[in-house]
Amino acid sequence: MTDRLVINHATVREKMDMTAFVKACSRRGLSMVSIWENEIDRIGKAAAKEVLTQTGSRVFGYNRAGPLLASSATERRQRLDAAKRSIDLALEFDADHVLLFPGGAPEGEKGLDGARGMTEEAVGHLLDHLGDGAARLALEPLHPMLAGDRSSIVSMSHANDICDRLGRNLGIVVDVYHVWWDERLDEEIARAGKHGRIAGFHVNDWLVPTKHTLTDRGMMGDGVIDLAHLWNAVKRAGYDGPIEVEIFSDDWWARDADAVIDLCIERCASIFGLVMERA
């Protein structure tokens, strides 16, 4: 078994439920998986825990706590309470980290100042709820094209600034799809690594042309991202965790899920030099 590579369930979610997905990863010698709360809901919490126990699989990333933002204080409190329940469930599953999903600017808002302030306030409350738990909360800077409807955190520098202010038990997931374009990326990765903040490293690729902002990510090696360079950058920064494949793609979702997982492993072995061992 290896803990150097993780597949995120989103990569094959259209063809595999959580039970089939965890078993497929285990058959290929992958000791960890990254999971989604809505997929737990599909099969039930008991069945989700059972397949993890049966295969000896551990949860790396837990998706997700959020959305957090809303126009009214009442709805923001409701969303914050729901996010706290998600964090509690992630702790039940012994997740390494919990991805935070702020959501976009509330209806009627102009600009991002309000969304940024509400996001940081909500993250602070969630950190208070987490306390000194075994898991970390993780910010994931998204691509700027998603600032309006998904998250106001769209750069590593902004994520680092939030971590500077909020500190404890807060990390950053580096998803190459979202941050590869940033001329300050190496500098900000090093900054995050200096403080031990890098919680995960997500890989995929940026296709040219890109047809959809959410569901046209590429298989590693099919696009223009210098993946090996970014992997070396996070390693130089002190990250010693796994590579995680997360591909949102209508194209790849339409294909045979087992074949997609096999190709993910093959591409990661080729690009990143990972040596995989079958169970």
UniProtKB/TrEMBL annotation:
Transmembrane segments: none
Keyword Cell wall biogenesis/degradation: no
Residue ranges occupied by any Xylose isomerase-like TIM barrel domain in the UniProt entry: 37-257
Keywords recorded for this protein, A-Z: Isomerase
Matching InterPro entries: IolE/XylAMocC-like, Xyl_isomerase-like_sf, Xyl_isomerase-like_TIM-brl
Protein name: Sugar phosphate isomerase/epimerase
GO molecular function, a single term: isomerase activity
